Every structure is written in C-alpha cells, then in structure tokens.
C-alpha cells in the first residue's frame, strides 16, 4: 500500500488521464501533461513500483459477461471479532458475483458490489451468503438502475 507518497502536478495529471483510459500511449500522455515520453515512462514505472498504480485493468460491459444487474448490499454482522470477520471475508472472496467489498463504519459492517445475471441469481446468492449464515444480522439491497459514472461502458 502506498503511504505518504509525494505526487507532483505531473504525476496527478498522468493519473487523472490513466483513470479514464489506462491504454493511453506514453507519447500521448507526454503531450497532454507537458513532459517527454521518456519522463512519462520513468514516472509510470516509479508509480507502479511505489504502489500508487496497483493494477491496470479493463472495464468489461457486464451484459457481455451475462451479469447485467449491478447490486449494492449493506451487510450487518452479529459479531465482528477477528475470526468472524476473516470467515466472512473468505466467503466473499470465493464468490464470483462479488466485484467489490469494503469493511466500513456506520450502520453496516460491509458494503458489497455485486454483478448478477438476474434477480433469481441474486436471491440464490442471498440465501447462501446471508440467510444461511448465523453471523449475518441483516442485509439491505440497493439495485442500480443505470451507471452514471465516468467509467460507464460505451
């Protein structure tokens, strides 16, 4: 994890552009941020080595993968001891429907981002993951109607 990493204006400008399109060629990045191509490549290597850039990914349209429904779930546990948290986290990591999971503060203990093929598939997921788990006190479902973020698949 990158902690206390110094980023200057050039680094931030490059990262802003890479967050939108990580396939931007170094030559183009260099033109956009006002550096040489070799300086951009050197900075990118450094950002990866220092853990600032943790992954280069492709955002795939969920419908193409057969998972057009995006569902957010707030999960509250009965117990939050180390063993209980570790067990729940292991269950989450084992499920392909889970595309993001955060341990949070507030009214819920976890916020999940799920991609599923149908409401029937989500119901099966809830039965296996929540209803059959005695440590899950409650869960609240939020179904996304559409993606309005900058990362929306075209």
- Number of structural domains: 2
- CATH homologous superfamily classification of the largest domain: Lrp/AsnC effector binding domain/regulation of amino acid metabolism (RAM) domain
Q: Residue share in helices?
A: 25-40%
Number of strands: 4
Radius of gyration: 20 Å
CATH C-level of the largest domain: Alpha Beta
CATH architecture of the largest domain: 2-Layer Sandwich
Q: With helices defined by DSSP (H or I, 4 residues minimum), what is the helix count?
A: 5
Average predicted local confidence, pLDDT: 93
Order of SSEs: HHHEHEEHE
Q: Find the CATH topology of the largest domain.
A: Alpha-Beta Plaits
Shape: elongated
Distance between the termini: 31 Å
What structural class do helix, strand and pairing data support? alpha+beta
Q: Low-confidence parts, pLDDT < 50 over ≥5 residues?
A: none
Largest sheet: 4 strands, antiparallel
Keywords: DNA-binding, Transcription, Transcription regulation
GO molecular function: sequence-specific DNA binding
Pfam families: AsnC_trans_reg, HTH_AsnC-type
Domain HTH asnC-type: 7-68
């Amino acid at each position: 994890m990158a902690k206390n990493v110094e980023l200057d204006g050039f680094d931030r400008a490059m990262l802003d552009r890479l967050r939108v399109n990580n396939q931007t060629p170094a030559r183009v990045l260099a033109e956009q941020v006002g550096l040489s191509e070799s300086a951009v490549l050197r900075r990118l290597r450094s950002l990866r080595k220092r853990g600032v850039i943790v992954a280069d990914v492709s955002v795939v349209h969920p419908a193409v993968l057969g998972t057009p429904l995006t569902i957010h779930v707030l999960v509250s546990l009965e117990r939050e001891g180390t063993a209980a948290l570790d067990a729940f986290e292991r269950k989450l990591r084992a499920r392909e429907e889970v595309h993001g999971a955060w341990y949070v503060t507030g009214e819920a203990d976890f916020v999940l981002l799920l991609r599923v093929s149908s409401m029937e598939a989500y119901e099966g997921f809830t039965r296996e993951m929540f209803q059959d788990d005695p440590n899950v006190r409650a869960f609240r479902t939020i179904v996304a109607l559409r993606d309005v973020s900058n990362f929306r698949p075209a």
